Structure formats: structure tokens, C-alpha cells
User: What shape does this take?
Amino acid sequence: MTTSPFTLYKQSTQCAARRGQVATNHGTFQTPVFMPVGTQATVKGVTPDNLHDIGAEIILGNTYHLYIRPGHELIKEFGGLHDFMAWDRPILTDSGGFQIFSLRDLAKITEKGAAFKSHLNGSDLFLSPEDAVMVQEALGSDIMMCLDTCIPYPATRDETRKSTALTARWARRCREVQNRETGQLLFGIVQGGMYADLRQEAIDDLLEIGFDGYAMGGLSVGEPKDMMLDMTEQTAALMPKDYPIYLMGVGTPEDLMEGVWRGVDMFDCVMPTRNARNGMLFTSTGKVVIKNAQYQRDQRPIDEACSCYTCRNFSRAYLRHLYMAHEVLAANLNSIHNLHYYVGLMAGIRRAIEEDRFKEFRQEFYAKR
Amino acid sequence: MTTSPFTLYKQSTQCAARRGQVATNHGTFQTPVFMPVGTQATVKGVTPDNLHDIGAEIILGNTYHLYIRPGHELIKEFGGLHDFMAWDRPILTDSGGFQIFSLRDLAKITEKGAAFKSHLNGSDLFLSPEDAVMVQEALGSDIMMCLDTCIPYPATRDETRKSTALTARWARRCREVQNRETGQLLFGIVQGGMYADLRQEAIDDLLEIGFDGYAMGGLSVGEPKDMMLDMTEQTAALMPKDYPIYLMGVGTPEDLMEGVWRGVDMFDCVMPTRNARNGMLFTSTGKVVIKNAQYQRDQRPIDEACSCYTCRNFSRAYLRHLYMAHEVLAANLNSIHNLHYYVGLMAGIRRAIEEDRFKEFRQEFYAKR
Assistant: This one.
């Protein structure tokens, strides 16, 4: 077994929500936490200074993208991803599994690993579980993820069982090849599709190997929202409680609220930054589609309850003008706001759990929308 | 006559360069000065906070663009351009003349004003000299420019004389219609093409009316560099010395150096921000084209002599990666650097003039390149 990086501060008496902390090479972060996604060694539209101001404690980098461009060896020359992108707080890197899965026809999965073609120039590439760890060690991330095989929805029980078993064998190879001297954490990924008993088997397999944290993969891949929440609840309940629990690639503010309720500690999603670039802004009372004519002369900030740089300085009318004029500042200011909303929502959730009033917090959250 | 907003601190004994200050409704700015261009109520790629950090003292807004979108009346509702874009230091607005001139076939100039078609939707628009002042008064800029007719290069003496005379008649109409109560300054624009005697006539006409400052227009419109500098020198020499002298739309770092040498106090140009977006970076030793393969593994900042946010935190290799990956952060970081370079160059020029060693400063500037 391994020493857990997770410290539990408070278990809600109202639900499975919990308030904790994860220790890494680049300091600790408080959970439940939302991790902004920095696909190509940058969280799109914001500077590291912006992320500090927003209060982001940990970000996510994409192994697949960095492996292809600029390459993990180049990043290693610069002292790793932290130094390369000037971010001094924790970084979690995914394994590349989900991106390769997303390539579909361009990828071929075998026992040995994943053969795929670069989305940039079509060149033939190959990533084994061992490669995925080696690449993430070169990147120097604080939390590495095992290479997994992602299961589409819908999938038959047989497909799901085979794919999940392969993920478990790959997980063992990842753990075995990992250099334990670096202090980098390695998380296992629980697959199992929409079959609770296969999720249980996946957890058992991973626990036998032993990881520094456990992630739920293969959710929010097209299944109905109810099924996603139900599977999250069932899987989270089966997870070991003395390690961090991470729900990968999820989701909306409502998804975060429901994930925390069911015991999830960590989340990541491109939604706040991607939607920002498309002019869709999150507020405590719902969504604002900034291009709408109703905002043309609206002197209010995006969210009157928000203290971000954007809301402190700019009106909806100005942000609408920037968006309509295709100004790059629109992406900056909208991304700052949406990330601040997500990070601030998690800070509110953490305080509510500490004070054992998360149930009430969740009710107020929905009542305002 | 009018009271000049200009205070002369130091006249170089080495050349026509001078060190001064201009007082406006939103405070003073030090000259010689470079004004970053904020065409659509935003200096492309940077926030107002970035501009403060860079040390920008005054920015330029484009009347033509703001008139078309979002409209001067909307901006007036927000308390003017300063409040709309959250910039609390001085703003100079151009008159729209140059942009209308740039539309060429879409514009028709008559005694009354300029009829033109919107570049956005082709709708018919009209701007008289009186309209140009009215629009700039609505924008609430600190320095307004008279509507002028820009003369192409080459142009015959007859064309140039007629166009310059029309600019003078328009200037009188601008001055007469201006509301003097607002404290907004109004600058006249000296045309005259490449004919020094017509430039002299233009100055005489403007001086008879009396303005708060005098600009040289119609330079850097395609004429050879030598001719531009020669015409700048001849025109600047004829300008009244107790008012600010502004060379419109110029230029490269070398152009700024030569303009100051010849007595110019104010400059604006899209070059630092436009080139930044195209990956062309200015340094004390020359240009860096960041996409070039030679920077792929270059761990140095853009300019080791630079103290901007970009150079303090990021390598050439990282900036190259962002540019190649089409990341929006490339535009931000490159724009911050290039504007810092321009603004910093002017700060160095001001110190050199104060210490009466501008000649040596200029020699060192060229020696490093």
C-alpha cells in the first residue's frame, strides 16, 4: 500500500460530500476542487497571473496534446511543464487515453498500447501505458493518470468487460514502471461503463495494485444525465474513502454540485473556458448569452454578485461589443469571469461543507437559478 | 488665441527634440509619448490593467470604428469612452478622416463632408466636420482631431492644394462648432502632401483659427522613407513651438527616434499590437519572428533587457509554442511585450532629452540593432 496524499478535514453529515486537502510536489490544494483545463500548456484565454487572481489551486494539462506539440522532451529541457508555462502550483496531467479514444477511426487499441495518427499532420504515433507514464514524468506533473481505454456509450456488457479489464492490466504496468523517487502521484482510473458490478470489479483491481488516488472515467460520454449521476453515486460509494476521488471531464455547475453531494473531490472540464470564447457566461442566476440584443445597453456587470476583474470593471454592453467586434479581449475577459465563477463556486461549496450546511447551500444554488 | 495645454520642460541643445507635458481632462501625459491604438474601444490583446503595468499614459480611439459600432450615442450613455472601456487616463480620438480615406471607392468627399459606406454592412453614412466633433464630444475624448481629407501619394500639386484648402475650411467649421465648455482639446491637422510650401500654407491657415495642438497628417502613406523624414523635418520646423506636435500614424521604432529628433511630441501606430498578433516582436537588438525554427528550444526571454510581464516569465520557446498552437495567450503576451517596448523606448528618450544626451541615446539605439 501507499501513503495517501489525502487529508479529510470534514465529512458532511448530510450527504457524501467531504472537505479535504491533497498534498503534492508543488504544495497542497483544497478539495472539493475544480481544475481549469490547460490543454496546450496554457489555460485558454488567461495568463498565470489571472489564474492566481482567480484563486485556481491546480490546473490540468493534456498529455496527448503536449506529446504531439511541442513534445515532452522539449518541455523536460525547460525543467518541466511548470517552468515552461510559468505556473508554480500543482498540475494534473491526463494520460492521453480520452483524446486517443476521441480520435476513433484514427486509433487502434491493442494489448500493447494505442496506435494512432496525429491530428496535426497524420503521422503514425504509438503510446503504451509505460510511454504514458514516461511522458508525464518528463512533463513533471504533480498528479499523473494511468493510460486507460475509454468506453463509448452505449456499449455491450462484453465490450465493457474486456475494455475495463485491459484498463486494469495497463494500470498495473503504469504503476510498475513509475519512478517512485520523483514524488509524482499516480491515479488509477475506474472504468466499467454503465455497469455497476463492472465498476466494482475495476475498483477491486485498482485497489489490489494501489494508487495515490482514484478517478472515475467514462462518464459524461453521451449517456443521459440521470444515468451519469446514478453511476457517479454508485461508483463513488464503492471508492476507498482515504484517497482523493476524481470525476474526469465533468461538467456543468449543476454537475459539480451533484458530484460533490455524491462524494467527489476533484473535477475538470473545458466548459468554463470554451463557453467563454463562445460568449456564454455563467452567473449565480443562470446563463448569459452575451451576444443577445437585450445586453446592448445593459450597464450591469455579468453577475452583480461577482468580484472578478471582468465584473469589477466592465458592463454587459461592453462585453457584448467586444464579442460582436471579434476582439481578443472578449476571450480574455469572458474566460476570467467563467473560471472565477467555477473556482468561486467550489470555494463556496468548501465553506458550506466545513459548516455542515451543504444541503442548504445546494438548495440556495438551485433556488437562484 | 487659446491657452496651450503644453508645457515645455527641456529643449535639446543637440537637435529639435523636446521634453514636455500635455494637460488634459484626465490628467497629464509626458512627451515625447507613444499612444497605443485602441480601435474598437480596446487596445487589441491587452487589458486596461496591462496598459497600466506597461506604463501607457494615453491611448488612441478610432472615431470611425466607434461611430459604426457600437455607436457614439451608446458610448455616451455609459459616461463616455473612458467609462465604457474602463480606461481612466487620457484618450485621443482621431476624426475618422483617415479611415474614410482608406475606404477609397466607398467614400465621396464634398464640401459638406464625407459620404461613405459602412465596411460592416454597406449602409450609407455621412460625416461632416461638425459631425466629427459631435461624435468625439459624445465619446468624451481628451483630445479631439479635426476632420481632414487625406491626400494619397503620389498626388499632383493641384490636387494637393485643393484638398489641403478643404481641410483648412473643415478645420474652421470644427473649431466653430466645438463646445468649449467640456475642456476637451481640439487639434488641427496639417496636410499639404509632399509640398513644403503647401504645408506652410496649411499651418498658416490653422494658426489663424487657433488650436490646442497641431498634427501632421498625410505622412507614411506610401512615400519613400527619406521623403517622409524630410517632410516631417520641414513641417515640424514650421510648427508653433508652444503647442504639442503630433505625427499621425507613425511608425517603426526608428521612425519614432527620427520624429523626436525633428521635434515631434506625440505618435501613434498599430504596429506594436498588429505585429504582436503576427508573431513579430521588437527588441533592443532588432526584430524576433517568433515562429522561426531557431527559437524552438530557445530558453531566453524575447529581450534580455526587457522587464515586461512576458519577458519576466516566458521563454522564446514557449511563445513560439503558443504561436504555432494558435493560442489566444500568444496575442496577449506578444502585445504586452511590444507595447512595453514602445512605451519603454519613449521613456528612455524622455530621460535622454532631460539629460541632454539624446544624440548619444540615438547613436546607441542604432549601434545595438
The longest strand of chain A covers residues 18-24.
